[in-house]
Write a structure and sequence with these properties.
Order of helices and strands: HEHEHEEEHEEHEEEEHEEEE
Radius of gyration: 17 Å
Number of domains: 2
Helix content: 25-40%
Shape: globular
Distance between the termini: 29 Å
CATH class of the largest domain: Alpha Beta
Strand order of the largest sheet: 2-1-3-6-14-15
Number of strands: 15
Strand content: 25-35%
Length: 223
C-alpha cells in the first residue's frame, strides 16, 4: 500500500452512517472514494456532493449515492486533497482545476479533512504555483492586476488551448515563490475584478491526514 493510499483510506474512518460527504478531487482522495465505494456496497448509507465532474463520474462508477445543495441543508464532512499544506494548516489547492467547487464545499462542511502525502507538507506556501480562477472576459487586464501583486501568472493550457474549468473559466497559475501572509493575499486576489476564486484555503482545514517520518499515520488537527 503506497503513501497516498494509506492516508486516503484513513480519511474514510471519519465517515459515519447517514452523513452527507463532500467528495474531493485528486490522486490521493481517489483512494478515499474507492474505500467509500466499498463501504457503501457493504451497507454504509451516505450521500455525496462531488467537487468536480471527474469526481461525479467516479462516484457514480463506485456506486456512491449523490445529492445536490438543493436537496440538503448541510455537509457533515468534506474530504479533499491539497497541493501544499503549511504548519498552520493553510493550503494551496487547485492543481486539478476544481478549486472553486472545492472551496464552496469545504466552506459548507462542518468538518473539512485534508489528505496529503508527506511531499505536500511545507514550511511556507508558494513553491507550488497558486491557481487563480478567472472569467475569460477581460482576462488580459486580470493578468495585469495579478502581475502587480507579484504573481507571474501563466495561463493554464490543455491540448494547446486555454484550460477550461467545469465552470467555464480560465486558470492563471501564479508563481509567488513564498507566501508569507496567505490571509492577506487571499483577500487581495479576490478583490481583483475578473477573479472568481483563488486556491488559497486559509483557516479552512480542520484535520490534515499525512504520514510522519516513521511512516505512521499522523493526524494534525486545528481543533
Amino acid at each position: 500500500m503506497n503513501e497516498k493510499q494509506k492516508v486516503g483510506e484513513k480519511a474514510a474512518d471519519y465517515v459515519e452512517d447517514g452523513m452527507v460527504i463532500g467528495l474531493g478531487t485528486g490522486s490521493t482522495v481517489f483512494y478515499t472514494l474507492t474505500k467509500l465505494g466499498q463501504l457503501v456496497q457493504q451497507g454504509l448509507s451516505i450521500k455525496g456532493i462531488p467537487t468536480s465532474l471527474q469526481t461525479e463520474q467516479l462516484a457514480r462508477e463506485l456506486g456512491i449515492p449523490l445529492t445536490t445543495f438543493n436537496e440538503i441543508d448541510q455537509i457533515d464532512l468534506a474530504i479533499d486533497g491539497a497541493d501544499e499544506v503549511n504548519p498552520d494548516l493553510h493550503l494551496i489547492k487547485g492543481g486539478g482545476g476544481a478549486l472553486l467547487r472545492e472551496k464552496i464545499i469545504a466552506k459548507a462542511a462542518d468538518t473539512f479533512i485534508v489528505v496529503a502525502d508527506s511531499r505536500k507538507m511545507v514550511d511556507t506556501l508558494g513553491s507550488f504555483p497558486l491557481p487563480v480562477e478567472v472569467i475569460p472576459f477581460g482576462m488580459e487586464m486580470t493578468r495585469k492586476y495579478l502581475e502587480e501583486l507579484g504573481g507571474s501568472p501563466q495561463l493554464r493550457q490543455k491540448n494547446g488551448s486555454a484550460y477550461l474549468t467545469d465552470n467555464g473559466h480560465y486558470i492563471f497559475d501564479c508563481s509567488f515563490q513564498t507566501i508569507t501572509n496567505p490571509r492577506d493575499l487571499e483577500i487581495d486576489l479576490n478583490l481583483i475584478p475578473g477573479v472568481v476564486e483563488n486556491g488559497l484555503f486559509v483557516g479552512m482545514a480542520d484535520i490534515v491526514i499525512t504520514l510522519d517520518l516513521h511512516k505512521e499515520i499522523d493526524i494534525n488537527s486545528r481543533k
